[in-house]
Amino acid sequence: RRIHIYTVAQSQFRKTVEATGAVDFDNDQTTSVLAPFSGPVSRLLVSLGQRVKKGEPLAEVDSPDFAAAVSAYVKAIVTAKNARRLAEADKDLVQHNGVSVREEEQAQTDAANADADRDAARQALVSLDVDPRLIRDIEAGRAVSRVQGVIRAPISGTVAEKLITPGQLLQAGTTPCFIVANLSRVWVMAQISASDLTSVRVGDTAQVETGIASTRLGGTVANISALVDPDTRAVIARVVVENPEGLLKKQMYVHVRIQARQPSSGLLVPVSAILRDDENLPFVYAVQRDSSFARPHVTLGLRTGDQVV
Questions:
Q1: What integer pLDDT is reported at residue 146 of this predicted model?
Q2: Which of 61, 158, 168, 208 is the most exposed place for a label (fewest CB within 10 A)?
Q3: Which long-range contacts (CB under 8 A, 24 or more apart) does 284-289 make?
């Protein structure tokens, strides 16, 4: 009553590749925040793991570069206003022969140069992520209080690494300060063995198991490396996984199950039909014409669900 006869026939199936993987940041949504100006760090405004929005301040810096840029913009505004006023006056005087045409043209040139210097000084402040309110105060001629450089988040995300401390001297454009990452989507770097490599293609769907309450997250194979890892002799397949609840953390080890999009064909038998002899070689019981059973050895291929090729 416990024996079931299974008819073996050629059938189609989708190959499933089992692999281990490690979680990494999505580099398309991760950025290293470099110091935009030089000077010592006066105060840190965020903590590790804190969520920040684009433009939110991360740290304050006592920066002479920052102060010099603000001062240059103030001077450029005053110079541009004076040059434009003189140019307009000369334009009126030249009509009454008060100044020569050459002097009036020189005044117009000086005014244009002053306007260009003013615009360049403003752009320098914008590139330093100066608060727009401070720029408006300068343009309105209002007095500017103590000027302090502020490092701001270039994207919205989570502060994944904090690389500076109060008092540390920063060098403009070279000192890494923070790493901000959007963790709503991550990369899983799955290690594919050489024997399974032909079964994996870009675009294949994948299931990622974290081992936390049997949670499974869906993903897609986005890239297959052209190089072999010299340590593991495996090829890395990058699986993009949506991570809305933040279950996947950087460097977390996970189990990856990749299902091929292209169907394959072969002889499938239930896994329970495969037995092992004294030498651990796989065999099955096969019904003969006279209803007796033979015990042929078989060669096993990929497993798909509760069946094996």
A1: 66
A2: 168
A3: 287/5
Distance CA 298, CA 270 (A): 13
Q: Are 222 and 200 in contact (CB under 8 A)?
A: no
- CA dist 208 and 153 (Å) reads 31
- The alpha carbon dihedral of 129, 161, 174, 147 has a sign of positive
Q: Distance between CA atoms of 297 and 226, rounded to whole angstroms?
A: 37
CB 166 within 8 A of CB 43: yes
User: Residue 11: what are its φ and ψ, rounded to 5°?
Assistant: -145, 160
Q: Output the CA–CA distances (angstroms, integers) from residue 47 to 50, 59, 91, in the order listed.
A: 6, 10, 58
